[in-house]
Amino acid sequence: MMDFTDQTVLVTGSSRGIGLAIAKAFDAAGAHVILHARSAIAPEILAEFKQTPQTLQFDIADAEAAEATIKALYKQADFPGIDVLINNAGITKDQLAMAMTPADFAQVINVNLNGTFNVTQPIFKKMIRQRHGAIVNMSSVIGLMGNMGQTNYAASKAGIIGFTKSLAKEGARRGIRVNAIAPGMIMSDMTAVLPEETQTEILKNIPLSRFGEASEVAEAALFLAHSSYITGQTLTVDGGLYI
Length: 243
Description:
Elements: E1 8-11, H1 17-28, E2 32-37, H2 43-46, E3 54-57, H3 63-74, E4 84-87, H4 102-130, E5 133-138, H5 142-145, H6 151-171, E6 176-183, H7 189-192, H8 196-203, H9 214-226, E7 234-237
Parallel strand pairs: 1-2, 1-4, 2-3, 4-5, 5-6, 6-7
Helix pairs in contact: 1-9, 3-4, 4-6
């Protein structure tokens, strides 16, 4: 069991799905968890944690809102600083390239890629001063292999891998490690509604013959946050889909 006692962990997009699973895993490992969402997080979700988490509410695509919220967080009395940042928040807006509007392309880039930068930059500055920290960015196997109907999403997730590698080089001399996770097909609200024949076709391309669980992505996040000699890497959690 990896121990994160007395560490503060911020997980963006953590009101449900993979983000919530990651937040719960850090909570179970003893961390003080800060949840984030665009809207208020339901009390019943907060009740599922061992330690009541702090919550932040802002749109990561809004650079000014992200910076202002994070600055206010650090101004709180006795706030110890963020030890681990998990950039999980993101969206999809799928459409074949020939029918995709410039607005749809820009929105996904703005949330997934620009939003990751918007949250990371003010926290990275603080980590530089405290001379330690771990950042884990959520990419996707789609950013590695591409997928029909997801040119915007693939571009945003490939961009996150490049962002991760560059930031890892900038942070290394100050003890800051930056890595990424590239999940494959993970059980979620979105995959659960896929027609059975579609799920069967997808499973044919996954050597482990099953979809992943959010908890398995959470295990990878804890591993990368804990591993002191790993930086600039992308860990693929996909059952062998991208080999």
